[in-house]
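Customer ticket, subject: "Can you confirm the structure for Sulfatase-like hydrolase/transferase?"

Message body: Hello, I'm evaluating your service for our small team and ran a test protein. I'd like someone to confirm that this is what the system normally returns, since I don't have a reference to compare against.
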Amino acid sequence: MTKANVLFVTLDQWRADHLGATGNSTIQTPNLDALVGEGVTFLNHYTCIAPCGPSRTTFLTGMYPSNHRSIRNGTPLNHSLTNIALEVRKGGYDPTLWGYTDTTPDPRLLGEDHEAFLTYEGVMPGFTVGQQLPANSIPWLEYLAAKGYEIPGPGYAIYYPDPAYKLPPGRHSLSAPSRFKAEDSETHWLADKLIDGLEKDLDTPFFHHLAFLRPHPPFISPPEYHDLYDPAEMAKPVQAGTRYEMRNLHPAIALMYEAIPQDAFFMEGDGHAVDLDDAATAQIRATYQALITEADHNLGRIIATLKEQGRYDETMIVVTSDHGEQLGDHYLWGKIGFYDESFHIPLIIKPPKSWDVACGRQVSDFTESVDLMPTILDGLELPIPRQCDGHSLMPFLRGETPANWRRAVHWLYDFRDPVSGMPEKMLNLTSSECNLLVHRDAEFKYVHFASLPPLLFDMKNDPDETRNLAEDPDYQGVVLDCVQELLSWRMRYEYGELVNLSASDNGLVGHRLY
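Agent reply: Thanks for trying us out. I re-ran your input and got the following:
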């Protein structure tokens, strides 16, 4: 059988309800929609953690965050753990990164004073770097400067709006476009780099991991996209009460309102993101969709290249995200907390033609980001390491439902801040108490905090998560059931690299138990 190629793509901060083929009637995602028709789409796919670094560590190691413990951007990763790049390299591939993995190395190897710890944007071990896209954007900025652009400053300063743009009457100031054209955007530039890489060796099976920045903020799009969507046509955010009422719903929500600044989302922001008004929210939502459409277009360019090269049919394409985006729902912004908007993400898998998989299927069973590494390795007929907590989705690709498949998803969110200590001070908690675990099934979501009151939402009758039922006497049985389920899950998925092995008269014996 022909050795398959792999194109593993992430769109950063892309939430599940922003894909045309799965129900969003306002967004234009023609290339992603085509992949949905040619592969298998997982409708209830969830990341096991946010933000970027921890979520990428999770799907690249196949491990729950409670086991790999790289739980914040900048938290070092245990050097003893393997990952998908190291494993496919054993299978004869040269796994190549285009973008970023946001991996912080283990200080026990490098020493705590190593320059690697000046940033959290290291590369996961095992990857060859085709083109890195760090937050300082230096490689892309050098490209822009060479094309004659004036660079206003380092890093994200390039995302200030075009100073020559004249704002039309009635348009929100956030509708202004970027100072760079679409053909020069970081999305187009990174796609070009990968396309150049595809052209260099047409005979060797490849493994490419492409990490698009968009639709991650700053929320500004090139002039060719900036007015693609009408803010008036965007869905209204979920806001069950006033900001004051929401702030008093739970201490964690009050913390998030205080911790998220506007300037994390656009360059001229001032104050707290919670205070953004309806007009700004609608415009940001329109820009967010424009950035997804731009990423879709550039993914289409890569797919067209694969087809021109005759390699598309034997390429496994996996498209997903690291986490979602609140977009003003519950007055929150970014990837944060416990709401589905931050953790429910898309997953599309287009298998090679030779695998003879039924196309166009949409799976409603719960899947998690830990499943990606086992799935890709299983598809390539490579061993799945014992450290993996996830399970291969290959049976779903064959039209089967695995026996005893999970009935719930779980995620961890850690809100400690080792640098500023702000959450610890505001909530009067120790760092080890600044975390939560979620048990989310088809009926209920239970949020357990280490040292704060729990939350319970009825996901069938209140899918927008507007009413906390944790203290309701009628739901105490549900709370108890959820606590028991959460505890049982944690007990089943303690770190298990070696636990099913044993010394014996025949030497080391054992196996991996699902």
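A couple of notes from the result: The mean pLDDT is 96. The radius of gyration is 23 Å. Feel free to reply with more questions.
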